[in-house]
Amino acid sequence: MADPRSFDVLDQPVTALAAALRDGRVTAPALVEAHIARLDAINPLVNALTARRFDAARAEAQAAQAALEAGEAKPLTGIPCTIKEFFGVTGMPWTGGLVRRRDVTAPEDATAVARLRAAGAIVLATTNAPEGGLWMETYNDLYGRTSNPWDLRRTPGGSSGGEGAVVAAGGSAFGLGSDVGGSIRIPAAFCGTFGHKPSALTVPNTGHFPPSEAGTDAFLCAGPLTRSADDLALLMEILAGPDGRSGALHGFTRATPRDDLRGVRVIAMETNGRVSVRKSLRGAVRASAEALVARGATLDDRPLPGLARGLEIWTAMLSDGASSHYDEILTGGGDLPVLRELLKLPFGRSQHTFAALALTAADQLTRPMSGSMERFVAEGRALQAALDDALGNDGVLLHPPYSRPAPRHRDSWRTATDAQYTAIFNVMGSPVTIAPVGFDPRRLPLAVQVVGARGQDALTIEVARHLEQSMGGWTRAEPARR
Length: 482
Prior knowledge:
Layout: H1 14-22, H2 28-46, E1 49-52, H3 54-69, E2 80-84, H4 111-118, E3 122-127, E4 139-140, E5 144-145, H5 161-168, E6 174-179, H6 185-191, E7 194-197, E8 221-226, H7 229-239, E9 265-268, H8 279-294, E10 298-299, H9 310-321, H10 326-331, H11 338-344, H12 354-366, H13 374-391, E11 395-399, H14 420-428, E12 432-439, E13 445-451, H15 457-471
Helix pairs in contact: 2-3, 5-6, 7-15, 9-13, 9-14
């Protein structure tokens, strides 16, 4: 049996690894062992793992190999993966990055995790996220700070930052993240992986912490981070569909691969008309549009001015749907005295990070304004209809995922509200695929958002596949100190 490293398994997408497992070029134990070795090598640098299950994974790899040899392979049999710690994995820590939950373990797999494992995937570890989510710096007082494998001085994004770092560096064949304002897409963009935020109510949120509510279930989306666009389609087929326990309603059917993009319209917006975007990312949108036109797509120059109100619309629609507040997530149900906790912070006596306290303060300050936000909710609903109408079943929007490539640690505060570039599409319910499209002069990943009308997930992934072919796609990061 060939050693898996001769096949460069750390550079192969899931589809290629599954084929190699089925035809015997690679064994499941060797594949899992190669990824465990990679995690052991990179984690001291990026600090992305929160808990390991290597021994269990090795045992599952032996069972997977027996199934392969018996001709009983499932779509993901023997494929190693990692899971954002916000999803329940039976018996594993399930803290949400909160000190108060340090002793909590998941009683069962989240629906998304259960579906991946039922398809044969082998979970190697869980990965880091910010305290309670909602921030692009992945750090908390339980597991520390995660770094971007392309530059350890920089953030991998958040809140699925651990997944972004691990998948970018080849530590797992794919990862599972979640996204309520950009938490799959920002890490994918900052770290140079593919990522997909599904259409609203496509993948169940059952077993996710923090939990979604009836009014916000459509805004929180679970989805994959991968090495290729084809892997996104494969994983979405496995993840999508109702589970009878959440609001998820929709399935997913992958598109038949197209030789060209004739009949596809592309709206390319280099900015949202409000927040300036670095030249490198504007160029990435422009170059991506040109690549799609070269493959047969046509440009559509219709404007979408409503995107300029992205921050207000996201805040208003999220608040309108929520019955609980951010401090209740952090405390388990009570109010959080922010000023007192901020005074305790320099002395190491607070159980909360500065980011969590700042976000709580912002939430508390906006509560009295809920009545005045009604107009932004109305604007959001109008924008949702306009976006679906503009894109239809044959159009995509190319848009920056953020205002700049990955910031340095602790520098995200300067552009904190620029996450509106991703957040607006959560409350729109739109499917969005992140496609890596190259690097800036500092060797930081560049990416674009490919946005579709609600339900057009297969189209955004197919367009990302064409961008992968034209622009090069994912490249494995080699973490090193500069």
